[in-house]
Amino acid sequence: MRNLLAFLAAVCLTVAGSGWYLGWYTVESAPAPQGKRSVNIEINTVKIGEDIKRGSEKLQDLLKDSKETTKAAEKKKPSADKESRVGARDDGGSELSEHH
Prior knowledge:
Blueprint: H1 2-21, E1 25-31, E2 37-43, H2 45-84
Antiparallel strand pairs: 1-2
């Protein structure tokens, strides 16, 4: 239970810090009547939406690139296995080679 609370606190602090850094919200403090302070929090929902959309597009691009890289590696893998056998010996002790 303690680990879950620590994790939630870390998530909250991360979102709060990165949100402030990215300009998702601003916090202003001003003097109020009778010696009190007034705190104003302004949330920029348009900026939040744009950043989330941009991040989503980048994530999709990364996943697409990852799939393409994986497919390219799989296509090269059989030829890599063939190259690794060059100079290897089979059960008869004769050397395998592509240059007979």
